[in-house]
Sequence to fold (136 residues):
Amino acid sequence: MGLFVMAYHWESIFWLYIATGLQECVAGLYALSHSAIVAQLAQSDAQLNKATTLEGLTWSAMQAFGAAASGWMVGTMGIRTCFVVDGISYIISALLLGLSLARTKWRLKKEKSQIHMFQLAKATLQRRHFKNSIPW
Fold:
Protein backbone atom coordinates (compact mmCIF):
# COMPACT_ATOMS: atom_id res chain seq x y z
CA MET A 1 0.00 0.00 0.00
CA GLY A 2 2.88 2.33 0.69
CA LEU A 3 3.98 2.12 -2.95
CA PHE A 4 0.52 3.22 -4.07
CA VAL A 5 0.77 6.24 -1.77
CA MET A 6 4.22 7.04 -3.18
CA ALA A 7 2.94 6.67 -6.74
CA TYR A 8 0.08 9.03 -5.97
CA HIS A 9 2.30 11.53 -4.17
CA TRP A 10 4.97 11.54 -6.89
CA GLU A 11 2.39 11.29 -9.68
CA SER A 12 4.49 8.48 -11.14
CA ILE A 13 3.01 5.87 -13.47
CA PHE A 14 6.22 3.82 -13.05
CA TRP A 15 5.64 3.35 -9.29
CA LEU A 16 1.99 2.63 -9.95
CA TYR A 17 2.99 -0.28 -12.21
CA ILE A 18 5.52 -1.52 -9.66
CA ALA A 19 2.95 -1.39 -6.83
CA THR A 20 0.30 -3.12 -8.95
CA GLY A 21 2.73 -5.85 -10.02
CA LEU A 22 3.78 -6.57 -6.45
CA GLN A 23 0.16 -6.57 -5.29
CA GLU A 24 -0.80 -9.09 -7.96
CA CYS A 25 2.14 -11.36 -7.08
CA VAL A 26 1.07 -11.41 -3.44
CA ALA A 27 -2.58 -11.92 -4.44
CA GLY A 28 -1.59 -14.93 -6.54
CA LEU A 29 0.25 -16.52 -3.62
CA TYR A 30 -2.70 -15.83 -1.34
CA ALA A 31 -5.20 -17.38 -3.75
CA LEU A 32 -3.17 -20.57 -4.07
CA SER A 33 -2.62 -21.00 -0.35
CA HIS A 34 -6.25 -20.16 0.44
CA SER A 35 -7.55 -22.77 -2.01
CA ALA A 36 -5.18 -25.37 -0.60
CA ILE A 37 -6.30 -24.70 2.97
CA VAL A 38 -9.99 -24.94 2.05
CA ALA A 39 -9.33 -28.26 0.31
CA GLN A 40 -7.46 -29.60 3.35
CA LEU A 41 -10.16 -28.55 5.81
CA ALA A 42 -12.99 -30.17 3.87
CA GLN A 43 -13.52 -33.75 5.00
CA SER A 44 -15.58 -34.89 2.02
CA ASP A 45 -16.41 -33.89 -1.53
CA ALA A 46 -19.80 -32.59 -0.38
CA GLN A 47 -18.15 -30.30 2.19
CA LEU A 48 -15.64 -29.12 -0.41
CA ASN A 49 -18.48 -28.26 -2.80
CA LYS A 50 -20.32 -26.33 -0.06
CA ALA A 51 -17.17 -24.53 1.02
CA THR A 52 -16.24 -23.43 -2.50
CA THR A 53 -19.83 -22.33 -3.19
CA LEU A 54 -19.98 -20.26 -0.01
CA GLU A 55 -16.54 -18.84 -0.73
CA GLY A 56 -17.61 -17.81 -4.24
CA LEU A 57 -20.83 -16.21 -3.00
CA THR A 58 -19.00 -14.31 -0.28
CA TRP A 59 -16.29 -13.15 -2.68
CA SER A 60 -18.85 -11.92 -5.22
CA ALA A 61 -20.91 -10.09 -2.60
CA MET A 62 -17.82 -8.38 -1.16
CA GLN A 63 -16.62 -7.39 -4.64
CA ALA A 64 -19.96 -5.72 -5.36
CA PHE A 65 -20.18 -4.07 -1.94
CA GLY A 66 -16.52 -3.00 -1.99
CA ALA A 67 -16.81 -1.42 -5.43
CA ALA A 68 -19.91 0.53 -4.41
CA ALA A 69 -18.44 1.62 -1.07
CA SER A 70 -15.10 2.68 -2.56
CA GLY A 71 -16.83 4.62 -5.34
CA TRP A 72 -18.91 6.46 -2.76
CA MET A 73 -15.85 7.14 -0.56
CA VAL A 74 -13.74 8.49 -3.41
CA GLY A 75 -16.62 10.68 -4.59
CA THR A 76 -17.46 12.13 -1.19
CA MET A 77 -14.20 12.06 0.80
CA GLY A 78 -11.41 12.01 -1.76
CA ILE A 79 -8.70 9.56 -2.67
CA ARG A 80 -6.36 10.48 0.21
CA THR A 81 -9.02 9.53 2.75
CA CYS A 82 -9.50 6.22 0.95
CA PHE A 83 -5.80 5.44 1.32
CA VAL A 84 -5.96 6.27 5.03
CA VAL A 85 -9.03 4.07 5.55
CA ASP A 86 -7.36 1.28 3.58
CA GLY A 87 -4.21 1.56 5.71
CA ILE A 88 -6.24 1.51 8.92
CA SER A 89 -8.08 -1.60 7.73
CA TYR A 90 -4.74 -3.35 7.12
CA ILE A 91 -3.53 -2.38 10.61
CA ILE A 92 -6.74 -3.71 12.17
CA SER A 93 -6.40 -6.94 10.18
CA ALA A 94 -2.80 -7.35 11.32
CA LEU A 95 -3.79 -6.79 14.95
CA LEU A 96 -6.63 -9.32 14.72
CA LEU A 97 -4.33 -11.84 13.06
CA GLY A 98 -1.73 -11.29 15.80
CA LEU A 99 -4.36 -11.81 18.50
CA SER A 100 -5.56 -14.96 16.79
CA LEU A 101 -2.02 -16.35 16.54
CA ALA A 102 -1.30 -15.50 20.17
CA ARG A 103 -4.52 -17.22 21.26
CA THR A 104 -3.65 -20.30 19.20
CA LYS A 105 -0.14 -20.47 20.70
CA TRP A 106 -1.58 -20.09 24.21
CA ARG A 107 -4.15 -22.84 23.56
CA LEU A 108 -1.49 -25.20 22.17
CA LYS A 109 0.78 -24.50 25.13
CA LYS A 110 -2.09 -25.19 27.52
CA GLU A 111 -2.97 -28.45 25.73
CA LYS A 112 0.68 -29.50 25.75
CA SER A 113 0.95 -28.88 29.50
CA GLN A 114 -2.29 -30.83 30.08
CA ILE A 115 -0.95 -33.76 28.06
CA HIS A 116 2.31 -33.60 30.04
CA MET A 117 0.36 -33.60 33.33
CA PHE A 118 -1.68 -36.59 32.13
CA GLN A 119 1.48 -38.48 31.20
CA LEU A 120 3.02 -37.75 34.62
CA ALA A 121 -0.12 -38.93 36.40
CA LYS A 122 -0.22 -42.08 34.29
CA ALA A 123 3.45 -42.84 34.97
CA THR A 124 2.93 -42.26 38.70
CA LEU A 125 -0.04 -44.63 38.78
CA GLN A 126 1.89 -47.26 36.86
CA ARG A 127 4.82 -47.03 39.28
CA ARG A 128 2.50 -47.35 42.28
CA HIS A 129 0.71 -50.33 40.75
CA PHE A 130 4.01 -51.99 39.88
CA LYS A 131 5.43 -51.29 43.36
CA ASN A 132 2.37 -52.74 45.09
CA SER A 133 2.31 -55.84 42.91
CA ILE A 134 5.81 -57.01 43.97
CA PRO A 135 5.34 -59.79 46.57
CA TRP A 136 8.33 -59.00 48.79
Q: What stands out?
A: The mean pLDDT is 81.
